[in-house]
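RETRY 2/3 - previous attempt timed out on the joint model. Re-submitting the same 820-residue input unchanged.
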Amino acid sequence: MSPSTSPSSPWHMAQRAARLNPSVIREILKLTELPGVLSLAGGLPAADTFPVEAMREATARVLTEQPQAALQYAASEGYGPLREWVAERLREQGMTHVKAEQVLMTTGSQQGLDLIAKVMVDAGAPVAVETPTYLGALQAFTPFEPIFAGVASDGQGALPEAIARLPHDAPGTRFMYVLPNFQNPTGRVMPEARRQAVVKAAQTAGIPLVEDNPYGDLWFDEAPPAPLAARWAEGVAYLGSFSKVLAPGLRLGYVVAPPALAPKLLQAKQAADLHTPGFNQRIVYEVVKDGFLERHIPTIRAQYKAQRDVMAEALREAMPAGTEWTQPEGGMFFWLRLPAGCRAMDLLPKAVAAGVAFVPGEPFYAHQPDPRTLRLSFVTLRPDEIRQAVAALGRVVHQALEDTLQAGTP
Amino acid sequence: MSPSTSPSSPWHMAQRAARLNPSVIREILKLTELPGVLSLAGGLPAADTFPVEAMREATARVLTEQPQAALQYAASEGYGPLREWVAERLREQGMTHVKAEQVLMTTGSQQGLDLIAKVMVDAGAPVAVETPTYLGALQAFTPFEPIFAGVASDGQGALPEAIARLPHDAPGTRFMYVLPNFQNPTGRVMPEARRQAVVKAAQTAGIPLVEDNPYGDLWFDEAPPAPLAARWAEGVAYLGSFSKVLAPGLRLGYVVAPPALAPKLLQAKQAADLHTPGFNQRIVYEVVKDGFLERHIPTIRAQYKAQRDVMAEALREAMPAGTEWTQPEGGMFFWLRLPAGCRAMDLLPKAVAAGVAFVPGEPFYAHQPDPRTLRLSFVTLRPDEIRQAVAALGRVVHQALEDTLQAGTP
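RETRY 2/3 succeeded.
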């Protein structure tokens, strides 16, 4: 019985509440807490990359030099010096137009997705997403009841000709959400020519872009091309995060919004939680202000690249013929397509029973999921654990294929 | 020109965005940053009550004993031991039914208001609020486009007979928002008999209650009666906060939701920001776990009571005849009603020019504001500053009355 119709409950929920459902990822993260399960599922950064000593020093400085300001209510926009630092860093990365006033500090970049949807999405309005796309973005947008338009995508990201086919008569598609660097879940990178074509198609269609870039710093051999936001200042809202280069438990991200959007986002931010913890913002500023990330990020890259190589080798050894993947050039994930006849969702309980967890690909699709897909994180476990986990997964897939063959035998 | 119709902008905003407007409180907080302005405006706790030394020790412990867990992604529900601690404390305060599983940690209790509205409010649905009510709650609910129903209130809070008149045929009024202890902005406390009558009226009408209790610990002579949530477990969602008893810059609050509501709130929380910073939750748990608040809160009470007395005396000396107020028995605010002919909004720029800031009462009303009202915080400034600020305000009001008289003279 739904809570909203229970005779004993006075709570009559909003229509949107029916769209909120238990998250597959949450349920899977619970599985990974079972003893003896090696998890390739969660997108958890390697905890040994967290700069604990730098955090300790920065925290002590904040609580010695500015304790009362750090612990008091603060401006909804965020901590001024950190906003300046973010703007300067983005200007260096090609977004030459960015001013500190456009930087809104958020409680993780996930909150940026919530605020953008709150300001932009009416019930029934089209919102475009890549195929597949980040599950957490679908979850953030869903409460505002959009109609998702899946944009056909290939190994380089969204197809420009598919953007041209999106609803674009005003108000049309409210925005297209795009993750150009080491996409979650596929790991793919949008190359320079595709970036140009995507921006041009979006401009022609009058569809603004929401560009999410949590993984851009995690490249292994070559930095990705400049952000889409560097090419269309007034048409792209850009989201960044400290979760993957410092630590996710601080919950610190930011949105850089064009002037047409920024004031409304700020008001939505204030209504949502007044402001992101000033304590955390000041600690992070103390950590990063003197070039710490320029020394720290290369160590993360080296570690993740080595783990990527370990997983690549383990996959080649363990997975049956017909399994497809592309080696990621950065980020945190391998995206696999299992041989015909396999359903990743059906394999998950068997894999957990065999001591390994992954995320099935289905929830990453707005429509028509490919049931053969799944996502593996190569950054959470140590190399020996990665080898062990992938070997176990390989055995589960081989067994499933054999079972399928036997079931097909008269 | 509205951003949504600007020909140069591709951003076509949601209808709700038109309801988001620059916050009066935000704009006023900016005024208070002007040099030479003594601010009685913001609801800022006295910064010298922040337990910096305890925070420093707790932070060092967290970063020594559990750094990786504190800095990693965490469960959307919140940190288990802190949820247990909150549940235990609420059981001691009369909410004997509360289980830790019902406690959802939020990014300040402001986020609890946002999540409840997200789950409960359809566009056009009635939401009831006291008259006047907390401005930040109006701001949190507004993006979900409710129709506000103002419940007539007196010095003891909402009138039960007004609750009976609210729309209550299903789905009817989605909830009534109520702040029974030292209400923001009026400072009033709901006495025991009124609590019983309000809960009975809400039960009869089938209207659930959202009970906000940020100030309940800040009583001066006598603890307030048990929460409404202690009287109607399945019909009251209860919000609490560490902002007024520890420090607001941590952004840490919680919602205790009845089982009918809790799962949807959790899903909305995950969509909004994944989880509240685990770092902050573990620090606060380290601070409070061994009875720190039992020693700390009495010192806040003593300090605020002394400041309340200073402001009461200063008001008696400075304000012209015909100014009305009730002495608050706790919390942070005096609520004044100026003599006939005065408009608080018109006085604000004159007051700021004279070196003192306050919050006009108008934005605290969902409908039909009383333009003669204003709110003064007695906790932010030191006693000598309070005397100076109230004296300056008194001169501004006297001058305004004289100007009104002269304007009325032929």
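Chain B touches chain A through 98 residues (CB under 8 Å). Closing ticket.
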